[in-house]
Amino acid sequence: MKKNIAEIIDVSNEIYDKGLVSGKSGNISARFGNVVAITPTLKSLSKLCEEDIVLVDMEGNVLTKGKPSSEVNMHLEIYKKRSDVNAIVHTHSPYATGFAFSNKNLKRLEGFGPIVTPYLQSIDYEKPGSDELAKSASEGLGNEDVLILKNHGVICVSDSLKEAMLLAVFVEETAKTQFITFMLNSAEDID
Ligand SMILES: [Zn+2]
Description:
Layout (H helix, E strand, L loop, with lengths): L1 H16 L9 E6 L2 E4 L15 E4 L14 H10 L5 E5 L2 H8 L20 E2 L7 H11 L4 E4 L3 E6 L2 H26 L5
Parallel strand pairs: 5-6
Antiparallel strand pairs: 1-2, 1-4, 2-3, 4-7, 6-7
Helix pairs in contact: 1-5, 2-4, 3-5
The structure holds zinc ion.
């Protein structure tokens, strides 16, 4: 478990350094059997230590000291519905979240695997930390690995933390590329 907690801290630092989360936003969790380790509420992901990571059971009972992220129920509901998911990374990364606040959908670009539907799945806005968001996100995710939360942010899931993080990085890069494309297409030619 010690090694796993160290990995959550590493991934937290990495997504902070990459600018995917800022201030005290974002949260990360990993499942180990019937226990979920999750980042704490109201703390920056940039400087977490081992004692900051909170362990909860699948019913949300806190097993250690500290207070889990306010989105703990969203994480638990996703784990309950998806036995293949063992790690969740939730960010408000700026480009992808810009799309989430706009009326434009994020396209799937090469790298997401086979493109079955043209756009990343999204759900309508629910209040952060609410039971409604936990329910809507876990249902809206379906069998996808990425979910856009309208007017809020992004969820990436995988069987490992590293993969979930790489997905979060990739979604942000994808959003950046699409943003640049929109800008170029809307710019007037100057030649
Ligand atoms: Zn959030």
